[in-house]
Amino acid sequence: MKSICVMGIGYVGLPTAAMFASKGHRVVGYDVNEKAVNALNKGEIIIEEPGLGALVKSTVESGHLTGSTVCPNDCDVYIIAVPTPINSDKTADMRFVRSATETLVPNVRKGCIVVLESTSPPRTVEDLMIPILEKTGLKIGDELLVAHSPERILPGKVIEELRTNSRIVGGINKKSSEEVKKVYESIVEGDIFLTTSTTAEMCKVMENTFRDVNIALANELAKMSEELGVNAWEVIRLANQHPRVNILSPGPGVGGHCIALDPWFLVEASDKAKLIHQARLNNDSMPGFVKKKIEKILNGFQNKTVALYGVTYKPNIDDIRESPVMNLWKLLKECGVNVRVCDPHASEKLEESYGMYDAAQNADIVVLGVNHKEFEAIDFGKLASVMRGKAVLDTRNFWPEKSVTASGLEYHLLGKSDNMVKWEN
Length: 425
Ligand code: SAJ
Fold this sequence. Notes:
The chain is an alpha/beta fold. Helices cover about 40% and strands about 15% of the residues.
């Protein structure tokens, strides 16, 4: 069993720490955020993630997992899982990786392993971390082993994916890759593939970029469909019958701390990333597109009230980071619209929110921003009875048209033209 320090106990670091601890390793979750460390030491979590609470509680109670605001100097393995945000000019903000690496210098010794898990621009290990780690005086790749092993867990399914996903380990040399593989073998049931650190960095960023570009294509289809008199969702359903086609789903934009940010690392790194850049812009344009659609449905925004259902970046989680629906909310407010938000998952993180039917009180339109499971059972008759207007806009193709219209409400769908030719029954 090893002693492991996980640096950064957020969305990635905490589940990783708890998973290692559950396998009998001694794990310290190190973070500068006192609130997160105090919660950890009480066996509590401050984020919503299925199964995480129970895992943290049991590993803290068993004494395998502790939190600390001081970096320990007696661990065998140091895993960096700090945020890698982007600056307002869309360049990578590597402050946290840099400071975590600097923190390591006085704390590592001969035989230690350092793993970067944070998604980072290609060449981060080689160009940013190694020059700092050289200050230890240790022989890098021999006395101090270094690798990038990107996390690939899907928020909402973190515990399951940590265990079952395959993993890439990109070492700065063969020895680093092989030793880091041994560390992850204790928690990963999937295959572990070895490569170089820069290839591993590129793989991770390209995985999220692949998804971003494909969602951008779906969003472009939605925009075109509204112009050309078709329903994008029907096009997707039919086109996806082709054995080699898999168009993703349009929506109000791409959010979260990964897919909406990582492609910018490539835009910054290379002027060849033209398609990637355009895809980012397409996805970022979606809140504005939805805003215009609402304005058109309402015939202008004057004295209007919009009830917005779901503002997190995706369903059934409480994460509002980079959420496109939060941007939509802001855009509507800037137009003087009165916005009443309902989000059963994020309510504690919002400045103002309402209950399921209270949000629709006197609303001119109900907009579904995120398809949380709670909204599936919504009673449209009850909604209609408290609304002032009649319009419903679904941006996720979640609410059945028939249930909406049966309550006397008007149904609108993102990506579906309001002037479609209707077949006679
Ligand atoms: N979205 C769409 N249409 C779709 C699919 C998603 O608009 O068809 C939107 C969602 O609404 C959401 C955003 O994209 O706003 C991203 O959601 P997601 O569920 O696709 O992905 P994330 O950001 O939660 O997690 C991703 C995952 N990467 C890939 O699937 C390639 C995960 O495996 C990574 O570990 C994670 O990023 C990360 O940490 O990098």
